[in-house]
Amino acid sequence: MTDHYAALGLGSDASLADIKKAFRQKASFYHPDKNPAPDAAARFRAVQQAYEVLSDPEQRQAYDDNRRRNLLDDPLETAQAIWKGYFQQVLADIQPPR
């Protein structure tokens, strides 16, 4: 499961304004024309997808409901996936592009 909040570096309580701001910052940073890192294009697509889901109220509600349901169905696996995504994001953000 992809964690759209982690892709934008936000918590699940983020407002629409926070989502837009984070999207602009992350999209600018990971844009393949500006970032030579080998994973920049993939990260850019992840940021775009996260914004598409989280900026639409209906899609965001469905995503949040699915997130909650997954956490209740298999909490250990879901928590591991969330933390793995979070730490990958954090480590990628602190490593300078090559």
From TrEMBL:
J domain ranges (all copies): 3-67
SMART domains referenced in this protein's UniProt entry, alphabetically: DnaJ
Any matching Pfam family: DnaJ
Family matches, as InterPro entries: DjlA_DnaK_co-chaperone (IPR050817), DnaJ_domain (IPR001623), DnaJ_domain_CS (IPR018253), J_dom_sf (IPR036869)
Name of the protein: DnaJ domain-containing protein
The species this protein was found in: Giesbergeria anulus
